[in-house]
């Protein structure tokens, strides 16, 4: 009976496993490189849009500067929950702004820290006098994975109302009217706002590059360890 065959098969199974792990690490590294490039492009789009001229709302895409005339509707305001600023939990204040044209937009008036229980929400009242505001268009923040259906929509009619990573369609249901598809992030110099250190990304491409380097380094470690093990086994067989 050939007793070397099980050892031979076992050795090549380890090599195959090592190859799979190396390929996986390389794929993860390449994914992080792709994420870094996506962040670069997003930051370029953000900077180009904010440095550009004001456009009409009907022509606005993402990251476009706009000026709007109308009034805030204070009675149906929303607090976007689980918004973190510099390590602190808080809310983004979302207020419907009705234009003189009749279009309804959601204005993000900025960030407020979470200071007490969710049964004791902050006072975010705002006067409904006619005014002109300025800001830029953006999408609502999205969570990576949404569990259990429409968790953003609360059947409670009390306001202000907490919402958790809603879509604009869900906000339209809560507000009881059709809303413009982009949210307007209020400029820092505008009145009746809160914390507005607007950032297009939570962290930049450099962190993705660091993650990519880690994955590629792990792949290299597996290759080196596998080669060393192979040489040791070969040396033992030849002794």
Structural overview:
With 239 residues, this protein is of the alpha/beta class. Helices cover 38% and strands 24% of the residues. It has helices at residues 4-51, 168-175, 205-238; strands at 65-85, 88-99, 104-113, 131-138, 161-163, 183-186. Strands 1-2-3-6-4 form a five-stranded mixed barrel. A hairpin with a 4-residue loop joins strand 2 and strand 3. The longest helix is centred in the first third of the chain and has 48 residues, at 4-51.
Topology (elements, then pairings):
Elements: H1 4-51, E1 65-85, E2 88-99, E3 104-113, E4 131-138, E5 161-163, H2 168-175, E6 183-186, H3 205-238
Parallel strand pairs: 1-5, 3-6
Antiparallel strand pairs: 1-2, 1-4, 2-3, 4-6
Helix pairs in contact: 1-3
Features:
239 residues, elongated, 6 strands, alpha/beta, 24% strand
Short description:
By secondary structure, the protein is α/β, with parallel strands linked by helices. It is built from 3 helices and 6 strands. Residues 145-152 have low confidence and may be disordered.
Shape: elongated
Write down the Rg.
Answer: 27 Å
Query: What sequence of helices (H) and strands (E) makes up the elements?
Result: HEEEEEHEH
Range of strand content: 15-25%
Count of helical regions: 3
- The helix-and-strand class reads alpha/beta
First-last Cα distance = 22 Å
Number of strands: 6
Helix content: 25-40%
């Amino acid at each position: 009976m050939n007793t070397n065959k099980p050892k031979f098969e076992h050795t090549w199974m380890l090599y195959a496993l090592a190859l799979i792990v190396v390929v996986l690490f390389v794929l993860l590294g390449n994914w992080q490189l792709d994420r870094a490039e996506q962040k670069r492009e997003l930051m370029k789009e953000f900077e180009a849009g904010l440095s550009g001229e004001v456009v009409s709302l009907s022509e606005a895409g993402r990251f476009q500067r706009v000026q709007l005339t109308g009034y805030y509707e204070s009675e149906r305001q929303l607090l976007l929950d689980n918004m973190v600023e510099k390590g602190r939990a808080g809310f983004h204040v979302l207020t419907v702004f009705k234009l003189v044209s009749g279009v309804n937009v959601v204005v993000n008036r900025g960030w407020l820290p979470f200071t007490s229980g969710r049964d004791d929400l902050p006072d975010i009242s705002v006067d409904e006098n006619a005014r002109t505001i300025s800001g830029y268009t953006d999408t609502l923040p999205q969570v990576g994975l949404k569990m259990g259906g429409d968790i953003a929509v609360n059947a409670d009619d009390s306001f202000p109302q907490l919402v958790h990573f809603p879509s604009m369609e869900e906000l339209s249901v809560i507000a009881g009217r059709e809303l413009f598809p982009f949210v307007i992030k209020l400029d820092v110099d505008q009145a009746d706002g809160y914390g507005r250190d607007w950032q297009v990304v939570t962290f930049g491409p450099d962190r993705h590059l660091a993650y990519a380097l880690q994955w590629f380094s792990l792949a290299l470690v597996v290759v080196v360890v596998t080669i060393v093990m192979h040489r040791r086994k070969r040396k033992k067989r030849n002794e």
